[in-house]
UniProtKB/TrEMBL annotation:
Protein name as annotated: Oxidoreductase
Record-linked Gene3D superfamilies: Medium-chain alcohol dehydrogenases, catalytic domain, NAD(P)-binding Rossmann-like Domain
Xref: Pfam families: ADH_N (PF08240), ADH_zinc_N (PF00107)
Every Enoyl reductase (ER) domain range: 13-324
Domain of life according to the entry: Bacteria
GO molecular function: acryloyl-CoA reductase (NADPH) activity
Organism name: Gluconacetobacter takamatsuzukensis
SMART domains: PKS_ER
Amino acid sequence: MFDAVMIEKSADGAQTVHVGPVDDSRLPDGDVTVRVAWSTLNYKDALAITGRGPIVRQFPMIPGVDFAGTVERSARADLPPGTRVVLNGWGVGERWWGGLAGRARVRGEWLVQLPDTFTTRQAMAIGTAGYTAMLCVMALERQGLSPAQGPVLVTGAAGGVGSVAVMLLSRLGYHVAAVTGRPQEEEYLRALGAAEILPRAGFSTPGRPLEKARWAGAVDVAGGAVLANVCAAMLPEGVVTACGLAAGMDFPATVAPFILRGVTLVGIDSVMCPHARRVEAWRRLAELTDPQRLDSMVTEIPLTDVPQTAAALLDGEVRGRVVVSIP
C-alpha cells in the first residue's frame, strides 16, 4: 500500500479529489517501479486537481507530472534497483498515473538518472517548471543568443518556470528583466538575479503591432496578449521562447515583428521532449543551479495539503516552487 492523491469522476460527471491509501496491485503496467521520495505541484497539476482545465484524460487518476525517487523494481539493465531517477512529462498525471503518490510504475525510457549533484528534494525543487526553464534557455542559445546582444525578459517571473528562468539567465550573465503582477515579490526576484522589475499591467492589454525594441531574448509563460506584446518589443533578430498559457491560448499578434525585425518565436514542448535533450537539460541544471537561490524559491507541503494548495496556486497566491513530501 502507498498513499496518493486520487482524482475520481462519478457517473454524473462530478469530480472528487481525496488523499488516501492505494494498493500496489492497482499500479499501471510498466517495466520500472519507483519509490517516490518527492513530487511537486505544477500549474498543470493544479488545473487537473481543481478541475479548472481538461487535463485528466481518464479516471481514476493520480496527478503529478513529475517525481524523483529510487528504483525499487526494474526489468531494465540500465536502471537497476537503487538508481535515483527523475521523471518529467510523458503524459504522466494526465493519461498515466503520476507522481503525487508513494509509488509510480512507468516505462523506463521516460526516466532520467538524477545527476549526483542533486538530492531528490532539490530535483523536485527544480521539477518540471525548472526543467522547462532550462529547455527555454537552451533554445535561446541554439538560436545564437548571448548576453552581449542585450537584455532578456521573463514573464510570470514569480512563478515556477519564471523563478528558475531568472536564476539561470542571471547565472549565465544576462541582464534579466522580470515581469510580474505581484510587486511585493520584487525583493525575492532581485535575490534570484533580476536586474529590473516590470509590472504585468504593461503587457496584459492589447498593444501596437510594433513597440519600442528592447529585448534580445525572452522566456514567456503567459501566452495571449502578453506574448503578443513581448514579440512586438523584441530587438532585431530577437528570440522568444513560449512555454505556457497562463494568460490564454490565443495569440493576438501580427506578422510585423517577424517580417520587419526578423524575430524568432520558438515553442517549448517539455512533455514529449526527446530523451537526449532531457539528459542535457538536467546536466546543465546541475552546472547552473545555485542551491541557496533554489532553496529560496521553495515552499514544502505534505501530500495531504495538495488539494487546497492547488487552488491557491491557480489564484496566484503561491510564488516559486512547491515541493511535496511523499510519506
